[in-house]
Amino acid sequence: MFVSHLELADFRNYESASLALAPGPNLIVGSNGQGKTNLVESVAYLATLGSHRVSSDQALIRQGQDAAIVRARLEHAGRQVLVELQLNRQGANRAQVNRAPAKPRDLPRHVHAVLFAPEDLALVRGEPSGRRRFLDQLLVQLTPRMAGVLADYDRVLKQRNTLLKSARAARVASSQLSTLDVWDERLVDLGSEIIEARGRLVSELRPFVGEAYAAIAGEVHEAELASELSILGAAPDEESEVSEQSVRTEIDQLEAASAFTAALAHNRRAELDRGLTLTGPHRDDLLLRLNGLPARGYASHGESWSFALALRLASAALLRAESPAGDPVLILDDVFAELDESRRQRLADAVGGYEQVLITAAVESDVPAALAAHTVRIRAGRVLEPEEAP
């Protein structure tokens, strides 16, 4: 799959933009702060319904405007699909597929993209929430209906937390909280499905991560993934040591449901005291190990960078292997400036076979010539015409 045409209206710093893109590598060049990342961010948003830089859609709408529009024409195997997303400052976002109304959460069925950016170093060194988001965004691209499951789980979790806070304020005894049992049942149903799906995804990603790490680093290191589950006693959000009994590669939904139910019962008193749900997929982590040691805390800067890049390349390889839409659009945002010459070339070799690669760079010479076949130049939120380019 590739994006043949991209249009923006009031997205980030673009009042309007219309850009033809080619299959293969596309290099987007411009000084820092001109809008290169904003362009590729729009494509990634269509695929994941999230930004890699901000948590709120409001920042994506140009200052002073009520809405932003991203429109992309996609091509695969001779077929075209036109997708459009309208981000609204007030009210729900709106979407269209081939000019027909659609739900925004339907867009990942049509748009597959994987973006790597410098912020992804936080996948290795940052908080568990970033790794959960990484898994969930990939999960939605592979299984779009999981977007609804994740949204429903978040809704139930908020309702349950509200009930816990109310009970704490009113000092209601746990034996009187029959309503809580109803929310527990729904939380377990949805949460165990998420836990199983994430575990299956981690298992499928593992071989691709090892291959990608070796390809980028040029060294043989054992890069491994596993799930660290709060229903089995892990507490990654509280900076606790990794407990091996809470680490799993996969877990089926029935086992997850049983463990989740037991964990809720065990934690009931503590949850009432804190007014917070202390176990579930919202408290899990993706454990990254390099040569048997947790990458967070042990990996060097170069190793962390290579691991983060390997996670994204593995995601692209998994989508390529499983998606009927062909290759995902692979996006490399300001990546080459961070790499030495040998790693630049190895990365170029690793991504050269993808149907479309979008690359941003402030310095054109940072990017191997093989990836600069189609170059677009950006200045102050404008796509420059060929005669304007230096």
TrEMBL record:
Subcellular location: Cytoplasm
Binding locations of ATP: 30-37
Ranges of residues in domain RecF/RecN/SMC N-terminal: 3-366
Originating gene: recF
Family assignment from sequence similarity: Belongs to the RecF family.
UniProt keyword annotation of Ion transport present: no
Biological function: The RecF protein is involved in DNA metabolism; it is required for DNA replication and normal SOS inducibility. RecF binds preferentially to single-stranded, linear DNA. It also seems to bind ATP.
Gene3D superfamilies noted in UniProt: P-loop containing nucleotide triphosphate hydrolases, RecF/RecN/SMC, N-terminal domain
Name under which the protein is recorded: DNA replication and repair protein RecF
The organism of origin for this protein: Homoserinibacter gongjuensis
